[in-house]
Amino acid sequence: MDSLKGQHFLSLQGRNRDQLDHIFDVAKSLEPVAQQRTKLEIASGKILGTLFFESSTRTRLSFETAMHRLGGDVITVASAASSRVGSSYGETLGDTARVVDGYADVVAIRHKAVGAADEYARASRVPVIDAATGYGDGAKHPTQALIDLYTIKKEFGSIDGKTVMISGDMTKRVMQSLAYGLAYYDTKVYFAWPEDEKYRLPATAEETLGSMGLDYERVSSYDQVADEVDVIYGVGPALTWDEKSPDEFVYNLAVMETKAKPGAIVLHPLPRVDELAFDLDGTRYGRYFEEAHNGVPIRMALLALIVGLVE
Ligand code: CP
User: What stretches of the chain adopt beta strand conformation (E)?
Assistant: First the structure.
């Protein structure tokens, strides 16, 4: 299996199932630390730089929590405006990388531009993790996809054999990354997006998923395949609370109680808009807050493997 030590983590493309399974195994071994709210000392002396040039609640805070629980320290840029990248200087990502690699041992970066983490990584002497970059074609959120996969594994005991509905706005970074991750397992994926082509799965993602051998199909809505679906991952299409998602892209308790396959769950990377009803919170269907909490052991595992704290 390819070691992650000293490596950038920029995508779920070009990986293999053994590598993902190993991350999940390490995450599982670290879960007690997160659950008991304690800390290790294995990362003592190591520093994580969280460079978030776009807003975040879960990703930045769970990366930082993960590093603290490993015993390391964190330095952070919490918004573009708080850095020179977002100032009138418009400092380049390359120059930023050449500076920050003198401070931090590993960096997690979020940026609005497609390819921003890759550009940053090309100039960085320390490993870089893509913590969500871009919109549309080429958008990525690989560590969110790890969390999604890990949550499926925890909920069902296995990712193999599961049918996943990915519905809503396919241009969102989480949608493409999750699909790439599912391609390493024996899964079936149904995609559904509204008629408006602006929500469609980008053609390059479709080509990549085909070459990765993902068993997928486009359907008009969840209703068409509800009796087969184990995991619903519905994000958008509404982008704000001022917009309204079409009814067939909204998941609520009534939909789940009348249509869902027994045992089906609803995941969501959060934050939600109207596609995920509040009446699913705390039910046997809604597993998205557990999913958000799984971000800590997954990011602990990733940091520990990349920094070389565990094999
Ligand atoms: N899931 C996710 O990326 O959430 P944040 O935008 O809050 O980091």
Answer: 47-52, 73-77, 106-111, 128-133, 163-168, 188-192, 215-218, 231-235, 265-267
Phi, psi of 203 (to 5 degrees): -60, -40
| Tokens matching residue 152 | 């499926």
Burial environment of residue 270 by CB neighbours within 10 A (0 to 12, 13 to 18, 19 or more): middle
pLDDT digits (tens, 9 = 90+) for 204-257: 999 999 999 999 999 999 999 999 999 999 998 888 899 899 999 999 999 999
Bridge-based pairing state of the strands 265-267 and 188-192: unpaired
What distance in Å separates the CA atoms of residue 83 and residue 307, rounded to the nearest whole number?
25
Question: Which amino acid would we find at residue 222?
Answer: Y
Atom of ligand 1 nearest to the CA of 131: 3
Residues paired with 34 in a beta bridge: none
Most distant CA pair in the chain, distance? 56
List the residue whose alpha carbon is closest to atom 4 of ligand 1. Answer: 58
Distances in Å between the Cα of 234 and the Cα atoms of 25, 120, 228 are: 27, 31, 16
pLDDT at 142 over 80: yes
The residue whose CB lies within 8 Å of the most ligand 1 atoms, and thus the one to mutate among 53, 59, 291, is: 59
pLDDT digits (tens, 9 = 90+) for 63-72: 999 999 999 9
86: confidence class by pLDDT, cuts 50, 70, 90: confident
Q: Whose CA is nearest to atom 3 of ligand 1?
A: 59
The helix/strand/coil state of 75 is strand
Please state, as a whole number, how many other Cβ atoms lie within 10 Å of the Cβ of residue 95: 13
234, 256 contact by CB (below 8 A): no
State pTM to two decimals. 0.97
